Amino acid sequence: MIEGAQGEDLEPERLAHLQLMVNLAGIHTTSAAITHAIYDLCEHPEYVNALREETEEVLRLDGGWQNGTHKKLHKLDSFLKESQRFSPPTLPGTHFSVASRNILFDPAVTPDPDTFDGLRYYRARQSDPTNSHRHDFASADGTNMNFGAGRYACPGRFFASMELKMLLAHLLLKYDFRFPHGSTARPANLVVDEFLGPSPWAKVLVRKRRGFVGTVES
Question: pTM of the entire structure?
C-alpha cells in the first residue's frame, strides 16, 4: 500500500484510513455473510441435511480438504448465493444509480423471487452445465452485482467464497443450531445508512452434534 501510494495518500492518517477500509471490506463483510447464512439455515432447516450430505460426500471423495475441494460444494455455493440475494452487503442506489436488489428480485431474472430457495442456483447449474460458472456465488455480472461488475468487480470474491464455504461446512458437520424456543422466524436485518448487516441482538442456540465422528474433515 505504501509503495503504491502517491501524494496525500502517503500521509500516515490517510494510510491508516485506507487500511481500516481494507479491513472492513475483507473481514466485516465475511463475518456478516456467514451470520446471514446461519440465520437463514435456522429459518430454513430443511436444507441442513442436503448440505451436510454433500459436504460429507465431497470431503470423503477428496480425502479431506484439498486445494479445489470448495469448488465441488455446489449446493453450499447455491445456498450462500441465495442468502446473499436476500441480504446483500449494501443497499442499492446510495452511491451509484444501480438498482441491484431490484434486478435480483425481478421475476424475469429470478423466477419466484420472493421465495427463499437455497438450491436455486444448484439447479440452474445442473440445467446449464456449459455456463455453470455464471451461477457461482462469486460470479459478478449484470444480473448479480453484489460483488460489483466488470473491471471493478471485487478482486477478493473468490477467496471470500472459499472462506465462507469452509466455515459453513465446518459448522454444518460439527454443530446443530437453531433459534430459541423452536422459532424459525429470522431476525430483521440491521440497516445503517447504506450498509445492511445481520441483527447483532439475535440469539442462536448451538450444540455439538451427537454421535459425530470427525474423520472426513481433516
Answer: 0.82
CB contact at 8 A, 169 and 34: no
* Confidence at residue 75, expressed as pLDDT on a 0 to 100 scale: 97
The residues, ordered by sequence, that sit 6+ positions from 211 with a Cβ below 8 Å of its Cβ are none
Which residue type sits at 46? E
pLDDT at 94: 46
Q: Please name the residue ranges forming H helices in 63-213.
A: 74-86, 100-104, 120-127, 157-174
Tell me which amino acid residue 195 is: F
Distance of CA 33 to the CA centre of its chain: 5
Please state, in angstroms and rounded to a whole number, the distance separating the CA atoms of residues 66 and 72. Answer: 11
DSSP state of 3: T
- Which residue stretches of the chain have pLDDT < 50? 93-94
> In 10 A of CB 85, how many CB atoms?
20
Alpha carbons 182 and 4: distance in angstroms, whole number: 53
Whose cell is 440497516? That residue is 191
Contacts of 55 (CB under 8 A, 6+ apart): 73, 76, 169, 172, 173
- 128-150 b/e (C-beta count within 10 Å ≥ 16 → b): eeeeeeebbbbbbeeebbbbebe
What are the phi and psi torsion angles at 130 (to 5°)?
A: -70, -20
- Look at the block and give the residue holding cell 454421535: 211
Q: What pLDDT, on the 0 to 100 scale, is given for residue 93?
A: 47
pLDDT of residue 216: 53
d(CA 82, CA 142): 16
